[in-house]
Structures are given as structure tokens and as C-alpha cells.
Amino acid sequence: MNFIYYIGILISGLLLFFTVVILFIRRYAIKLEEEYKSKQFATEEILFIDNGANLFGIDTLNSLQLRGNGLLIITEDSLFFRLFFPKKEIKIEMKRVFNIEFIKSFKGKSILRLLTKIDYNNNEGSIDSIVLYIKEKKKLKETIENIIYR
Length: 150
Hints:
Blueprint: H1 2-38, E1 46-58, E2 68-75, E3 78-83, E4 88-93, E5 97-103, E6 115-121, E7 127-133, H2 137-148
Antiparallel strand pairs: 1-2, 1-7, 2-3, 3-4, 5-6, 6-7
């Protein structure tokens, strides 16, 4: 009987721990979004924002690149992504973006949901892609297509 009691306490403790971690991350995401909206993007119109975007990677980087959740902001001039941990920013000028499509996996990584692949010309003049998981992928696609197909 004691064994089951201890397992119950362990499971309850783990659930409480993960709930606190998730709440901390959500609170951090909202704070970061407000900070970027009021400071870095205060003078620009934000067309799309998602503080729960998941970066799967950039095509020209190796397979050991950073992957993780962060803040995605689309303006008329740029695609901006800020990883939560570690602090890393990616900024792509919208004039370099030429395609957006949905794919099933990227470099062998998949979450059994469609990913959003955005093709662009990088600073070296080569074709590159950034791949993200976005919940509102259709809205993102429509926003980017409205910018690049004008």
C-alpha cells in the first residue's frame, strides 16, 4: 500500500511541476510579445504575430541547429523570429521571400502536422528556407502572400 501511495505523490508532484513550468513559459511568451510590440516594432504595423511558434530549422544550416519555441512577427518589411531559449533572433527581409508552402517533415523531423516552409534568398544570394510550426498557418500564408505577390 505504501508503494502506491508514494507513486501517487510522485505523479502529483510531477504534474504540479510541469504545470508551473508551462505557466512560466506562457507568461514569459506574453511578456516578450508585449515588449517587442512596444519597443522594437512600435513604429511598424504588425500584420501577424504568434508567441507560440516552433522553429524547426533553416535549410542551409546543419542538422544540429537550434530548434525551439519563440515569437514570430510579420510586418510589411520583415519576418522576425525570436527563440525563447537561448536568446536568438532571426530577421528576414520580406523582399527576399518568394514562396510559402506546407510540408509534412523537415530534415527528418515531424510532429505529424503540417509545417510551414518559407523560401527566401539569403544574404549570400542562395535560396534558403525557414521551417516553422504555426497553429494559424493558413492566416500566416495569406499574410505573406499578400505581401510578396503585390
